[in-house]
Amino acid sequence: MTQMRAIEVEHITKTYGDFRAVDDLTFTVYGGEIFALLGPNGAGKSTTIRMILDILKPDSGTIRVLGAPLTEATKNRIGYLPEERGLYRTVKVIDMMIYLGQLKGMATADARRKGMTLLEQLDLGKHAKSKVSELSKGMQQKVQFAVTVMHEPELIIIDEPFSGLDPVNTRFIMDLLLDFRKRGGAIVMSTHQMYQVEELANRLLMIYQGRQRLYGEVDKVRREYAQNAVIVEGTGEWSHVPGVERVQVAEDGRRGTLLYLQPNTTSDDVLAAIAADDSVQLQRFELAVPRLNDIFIQVVEGEKANGKVVAGR
Amino acid sequence: MGKWWLVAKHEFLSNVRRRSFLFAAFGAPLFTIGIMVLVFGVIINSFESDITEQIGYVDLSGVLTDAIERPEMFTPYPDETAAAAALESGDLLAYFVVAQDYMATGGVTLYRGGDVPPSVENAIENYLLANLGAQVGNEDVAQLVQDPVDASIRALDSGRTVTAEGIIGLFIAPFIFMVVFLVAVQTTSGYLMSSVVDEKSNRVMEILVTSVTPFQLLFGKVIGLGLLGLLQLAIWLVAGAVVLSLNRDVGVLSGVSFPPDLIALSLVYFLLNYFLTASIMAGIGAAVGSEQESRQIAGIFGFITAIPFFFIFTFFEDPNGPLPTFLTLFPLTSPMVYILRSAFTAIPTWQVIASLALLALTTVAVTWAAARIFRWTLLMYGKKVGFKTIMQALRSRQMGTTATGEAAG
Predict the structure, then answer these.
(1) What residue spans of B49-153 are helical by DSSP H?
(2) Percent of chain B scored above 90 by pLDDT?
(3) How far is B408 from chain A (nearest CA, A)?
């Protein structure tokens, strides 16, 4: 990971009347990473993004983007894909791209060339002269993405990048994102698709009711939430294996059996015990690292139940 | 040139190609003028309509014995019986009898079969006038009796002189100019509103505000569409000048003139009026956000602007009366009224100055307010922007809170 700090947010707070939308958030996004911004609807994600983009001013706290407070010049180095897609509907695709590219400081010829290249890349070359309203939803989504990256920004902020896309187009966009990251760009991705975060994101920030709930590397967060349990697949009576406290079968339709371990038993201990036990045959053995989805729900539900987050176990 | 210029260029180019612009720029004024020509045509025709039927007459007085200037349609008959028979048989539309004691009483009786157009009575009068005049002896006097007033009308202090024939031109020119003016301002500021509504409802706004500031966006739109309006005016001025130079001899057009002072002041009025209307429309577009609703509200302003049209006869009769004076001072109508009134009368200088000052002040205030409302409500979606929010936007010291009140995560 390069050390370029794409976004530095320090103690920002935003209040609407009596409602505290964002409450003392601090985080950093680096170049060359995909940073997931998570949280249920109304958690303060959009408000945070809008403050980063200088559409809103925080009540307190500071935000630095690409090394300094946001200026007009910096705006040209940022790409933004809003949650609610925005395209001119009655304008030709390429003309619209040229206009939006120009507004990001591109020369007309550059904007046309780059726009065409991107459209070809996204398999939309023959639609360059179509009106946006004539395109399918998936195509519009791809055009929107092309608009976001055409001026070769150093930071892109995207809201639900894959919604409405079929698997093939999802792959297209995903490859572009990974390529963008490889070249050192910073990506902030706000999404509800947890499996995409697991697959793509390096680090995450989860906010709920305006406050930070989880922050850090995705794998580390997941490990923190791991219980002392393993998932096994195979045949035999797992409850007889030494060190296993209780057994839970096929949770959530997932394959395998969840073995909760006794407090002082490690996964190595139980693997050795299984190997030594002839009454069970093992086909799969893995640590029970929770899915982000489960962590997400646990954080939100825990908050609702206790008024504070349940610490990682 | 900053990014506002890109916005201006985009607005100008994407709207100048619109079919609705072409219609608004040329079609609508042409249509209006067409209707006017038709109306004037009908009015003039009813005085001068050609009569193909024959009119007979019987002269018992002897005034018409050596008749001069007898119109073709008039046929003399020796006595009433013959004339009555001709009327009966349908050879005549009507006949008139000049009474024996005409020189003492002026008695003329018209007998008619069907409807007789008013022009017939005019013709009879002119015919008798001509023959009576012939008896005066002095030819100059005889001429004058027939056409006693060769009017030349001079608007007080304005230095513009027209002949009686040109009086219609005097009226037509400002009327056309007013229509073009109104259409130019209303269409372009209407485009401004719908482009704001459009960008807001299709969410391009979200992308735009991360590329340009709301002020750059607003300024660019106002300038770009203002240029479009000026183009519209320029086309009409050039077309008007060409038509005039080709038809200078046509009587009706002889009164049409475009004095430089009128044009210069009109341009000032146009620019101020455009900025005023455009600001109002931008504010409405940003605050309302739905095409239909914003059109309704904009329609109210359009209606107010068009008020002078409803009282056009008041301007004819009493161009310096209280209503024209009030409408000269009222900022939403003053530009139109200035043009209209200056055709009929010399507007007192203090009124022109006061109306320009009021308009300028209102424009500055409204533009300022609209910019704030625009900035404030730009990214508020799907919710009604109430009066409270508007007042908040106007009072707020901190301009950096575009979407205040919006609590969506």
Answers:
(1) 80-89, 102-105, 118-134, 139-146
(2) 9
(3) 5
